What we know:
Layout: H1 7-40, H2 48-71, H3 73-97, H4 100-117, H5 120-125, H6 133-142, H7 150-159, H8 166-187, H9 194-206, H10 216-219, H11 225-252, H12 257-273, H13 275-285, H14 287-304, H15 311-338, H16 345-374, H17 376-396
Helix pairs in contact: 1-4, 1-6, 1-8, 1-11, 1-12, 2-3, 2-4, 2-16, 3-4, 3-8, 6-13, 6-15, 7-12, 11-12, 11-14, 11-15, 11-16, 11-17, 12-15, 13-14, 13-15, 14-15, 14-17, 16-17
Amino acid sequence: MEQRFPVTRNAILLAGGLVCLNGAVQLFVALATVTLVAVTGIEGILGLGPAIYLASGALAVFPAGRLGDRVGRMPIIRGGFVAGILAALATGAGCAADSATLVIVGFALMGASGAIVLLSRAAAAEMFRPERRARGISYVLFGAVSAAIFGPLVFGPMFAGRSLTLDDLVVPWLSTGIFMIAGLAISFAVRPDPKTIGEAQGTAISHQPPAAAAPLREIVRRPGVPTALIGSVTSFAVMVGVMNLSGYVAVGRHHQQGDVFTIISLHIVGMYGLVLFVGGIVERLGRRHAIGLGLSVMACSNLLLWPFDGIFGMSLSLFGLGLGWSLSYVAATAELVELAAPSERGRLIGFNDFCAAMTGAILALAGGALYSATGVAALAVAATILAGGPALWVSRGAPRPALDPA
């Protein structure tokens, strides 16, 4: 039972790890497109940086999730932080040496790091009983909201009044490694492993030993799984596709680079600031309805990016995008964790994250090309359709039958 394990302490520590991750990711979002254009001199590939980040994360997270089913969640998450440290060194060195190759390697390592460490939210979910899983995910994700203060208080002043030459970018990129080192240190305090707790919880509820893992092709066909996958993949891919291009859109609208961190910070507040309430909302509405509502909020927020071209308007749009993501992503993740046995969760969540990151990479690359060719209006409308279509499909479907919580 939960009382036998330090579930709350582990959840707080996992939240601390996500604080560190999001500090580094906030820098990446604000600087990736600018860095790649600066090191290559080609503006038309501005979506390539986010695409590299997302694609490498997709390729890393699926095998990482499967391995986590064998060795536990925390060794994998620690490996993610190590990849983040190496990413900081490679990207900083690439800026110092004016080497596109090193920068791309750094982006790839950072993508792998982010995707692997984000498995923390599923690790948190499996420590809680089925009826509290959405809240469990919320507790861990809430810690990441503190990363929002890094933008205006730390990163904004760092870039105030400065032209971003490659030399100016070396220190900011190296500083991402400090966040990753702190996250790695925190991860060693998470004990026992969340997988161990999840297996014990399942045994206590069902009074039976953990079930053997089913093949992935069977898991994804279970009632409720396709809907949760569509909700999770859509919410993540559309969110990161728009978020990773927002910095370049702001600069293209003649805002200062330091102002980008205000937009990103408000986006992070939307993602995580209300997440403690999101868990309760998901449990009251039902997970399928929460997925549909979240995607609908994302669609409306994407459309606002077109007419709202000031810092306040863009911040409001990105805030709504983050809030919609929070609703749909928490609901979908809780559903996926519940519909998989402890021995299956790593592979199912890893497969989900693979699909989400790969889709996000495609959207970031296509969105960058679309924005370069036609401007922000086409980007906003396309993102609205991509979120709104699945929202209608999810909302019209019937809820899955209730399952035995074991």
